[in-house]
Amino acid sequence: MIYEGSSLSVKLLQDGIAELVFDAPGSVNKFDQLTVNELAQAIEELVSNSNVKGLIVRSAKPTFIVGADITEFTALFDMPEQDIVTWVAKTSQVFNRFEDLPFPTIAAVNGFALGGGCEMALACDFRILDTTASLGLPEVKLGIMPGFGGTVRLPRLIGADNALEWMTTGRDCKADKSLAVGAADAVVEPKNLIHSATSMLHDAIDGEFDWQARRLQKTSPLQLNANEAMMSFSTAKAMVAAQAGKHYPAPHMMVNTVSKAAGLDRDAALALENQGFATLAKTDEAKAQVGIFLADQLVKSKGKKQAKAATKVVNQTAVLGAGIMGGGIAYQSAVKGTPVIMKDINQAALDLGLAEAAKILTKGMHKGKVDAKKMAATLNNITPTLDYTSINNVDLVIEAVVENPKIKGLVLAETEQHVSDDAIICSNTSTISINQLALNLKKPERFCGMHFFNPVHRMPLVEIIRGEKTSEATISAVVAATLKMGKTPIVVNDCPGFLVNRILFPYFAGFSQLLIDGADFVAVDKVMEKVFGWPMGPAYLLDVVGLDTADHASSVMAEGIPERMQKIKNDPVTLLYQAQRYGQKNAKGFYNHSLDKRGRPAKVAADEAYALMSEHCADKQEFDKEQIIARLMIPMANEAIRCLEEGIVDSAAEADMALLYGLGFPPFKGGIFRYIETMGLNNFVKLADKYADLGPIYQISDGVREMAASNQSYFAQ
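-> C-alpha cells emitted (717 positions)
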C-alpha cells in the first residue's frame, strides 16, 4: 500500500501500475476538505515512489465522484473574498500537482463524474468511460463556476464552444457524447472498464500514446486565432444573455473568464478561475442557489424517510373527477407505472380526461421523449368508468371534483362506501379545510389532502395536508405514493389555503390594492417578471389560474382568515370575474389571449379590463419598481412567516422549496425566507413598517420583530 486514508487509497499493482481508489464513508464519493487533503498526501507519496510507472484513478462505488461537499459551502461563502481565493487556489494546486505527476494517468469513470469529480478526470491524461458514465460541470446550478481547473482544462480538450455549453447550462454529458466531443478517449462496457484502462495505460507507458503531448495541450493557451476567438466568445455571450438573462451572474462570469484566459497558460488561467469563483461565491445568487440545493436535499431525505415508514403499498389508484386536472393526475400515475381508474359521472368528462393524457403524450412524442410503446403503455394504465364498482379494490383514491365543499363532501362520503376498509382517501383541494372535509367520513384517520398543481405533469410539488385526525400511517403511504408518481411531497398541516395558496393570496391582495391605487397591471407584471424574476407577473398569473377560481379561493381565504384576508371592495379580480372574464380559459381576463402564427400563446393588455376597472380605481399613476416589489412581496413574506410560526410548515427550507416547486419562485432569490434573510431581518422589519398603514397583510408578527432584534436566522441549525 502506497497510501491509505479514510476516503481514498493508493496501492501498487503489477508492472508498475498503481491504482488510486476513491471510497469515502457513505454512499457516494465527494470532494470534501478531508478528501482534498488526503489526495494531496497521496500525490506526495506517488511522486516519491520510483516504482510507479502509471496510475489508474477509479471509484469503488457505483458512481465515480459526485462533486464537492456542498454542505461545506455555507461556511466557506461567509469568509472574506480574499480568503476564498486563497482556499480555492490551494485546492486547485492539488489538482495541478496531480496533473504534473511524472508518469501517465488515466481515469476509469463509472456512473457520474460531476463538478470536482469531472475536474479530477480532466486532470488525468486519459479518460475511459463505461457506458453508464456521465461527465459534467453543474456548478452554474449553485450560482458559481468550476474552481478546480474545469474552466481551464475542458476548453483545451473539447474546444471553447463545447466547454462553455457544458458549463453555462450545467447539463451532464453521457459517455457516447463525451467521446464524440473529445472529453473521453474510449467508452467500454462496465465489465471491461478496468481491464481496458490498464491496457490503455500500458500503451501510454510503452510510448504508443503520447501522454506528454496530451498534458501539454491542457497546460498551454487555447489554440484559437483572433477571429476564431472573437466569433466563439461573442456567440457564447449572446447565448448566455438570451438563456440566463441578467439575474444569473455565473454563466456570464464563465464566458468572460474563459475568454480572458484563452491566450494564457494553465497557471495564469487558473488564477482567473480562482478569482471568478471567489467573486461568485460572495453573490446573493450563489448563497440562494446553494440554499436551494441544501433545502432540496432536506426535502428529499425527509420524503424518503417518511416513505420508508409506510406500511401500505399503493399498487392501484383511482381519480374521481376526470376533466383537465383529473386527467393530469391520472396521467401522472399511469406514466410512472401505477394503474389508475378514472371515474366521473358523465362520458364527456371521461373523454376530456383521456384526451388530456393523450395530449401530454403526443407532445412528448413530438419532442422525441415518448415513443409509441410508452404512449400505449401509459394509456392502457388508465381505465375510465362511470360507476363506483371499479374502485372497490384500489389502494388510494384521489378526489378531484369541483372546488365546492358540499359537492366534495358528498363525493367523499359516497366513495367511502365503495372502497375497502384500508383504502386511503385523499382530496385534491386547493383551499378547502381538510378537517372540514373529514367530517364527511366515518374513518377520518385514513383521509388527508393531496394538492397537485396545474399543469400536473410539469409542476413538481404535491402538498400533503395532515388533518387533525389523519394517521401517520396515512401520511407515510401518501408520501410514498407521491414519490412513486415522480413528484416532490411536502407535508403541511391544515389551514385555509394550506401553505402555498395561503402565502400566495396576500400577494394577490397586495396586487389588487396597488391597482386600486392607480397602478397599471402591465407595468406591475413587467417589474415582477423582469426585475424581481417571477416567470409570470400577478395579472398574467391570475389569468392562467383563472379569475373565477381566484375569486372563489379568495372568498374561502376571507372566511378562514378574516382578520387579514377579508375581501377587497371593488377588487379588480372580482370585477373581471363578474364580467365573465375568466382568463386564459375563455381567452379574456386582464389580457386578451390568442395563439400566434406558430401556435404559441400570445396576449395583449385588454382595453375591456381597463374600462371595467377605471371607475373603481384611482387615476393611473406610475410607481417605482421598489414600491411595486415591496407592496406585493411584503404580504407574501409576512404570511410565510406566520405559517412557520403557527407550525403549518416544519421549516423555512421546506417553505422555500414549496414556493419554488409550486409557484416558480425565482431560484436566484432562493425562496421566500432566503429572500427575507438576504434583505436582512432588520431591513425587512423597517420596510414592512413603512407600509404598515396599508392594512393587516403588511403588519409583521411579534415573532419576526423579536428575531430581528436578537439577530436570529430562519435557517439556524
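The chain is about 50% helix and 10% strand.
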